[in-house]
What we know:
By secondary structure, this protein is mostly helical.
Amino acid sequence: MQNDHDKFLxxxxxxxxxxxxxxxxxxxxxxxxxxxMQNTSSVIWxxxxxxxxxxxxxxxxxxxxxxxxxxxxxxxxxxRLIFDEDLMNQIEQNTDRKDGTNIEEISNAARDCVKKLNxxxxxxxxxxxxxxxxxxxxxxxxxxxxxxxxxxxxxxHDNLLSCVELKIAQERQ
Length: 173
């Protein structure tokens, strides 16, 4: 049993980012993706004896995650953003960009680029995406107009996109 526990921890820790990236591309809400990752980890633990040495653990884990995502989406039928199974298949096939850039590279570059933003812009990003506040809530908290905040978010998005593209291009040289 201890050997299975060690094997599970070693493999999960080495492949968690790939499995989580897969989940996150299907379920864009970070908190929901974390919940699904927890459920996936639990199922992986229960099925660790079915994993065969030499098998791609991340692919195996993503297969388990896929069922957890579908289960989550069925429970969230009333949600505004629901991916059906056909759309999930399309996303899976098109996730890695044609230039070979994957979700993990993009996420790492985006984190680095957010750190380069000025403190005010970092705060807006944190409130909008980490705390998931609405633009109206953020404008109230920061004593700014909703219209001005939308303009700021558009500028921030443009800056982040440019920064991420530049960072990935530089890393490929």
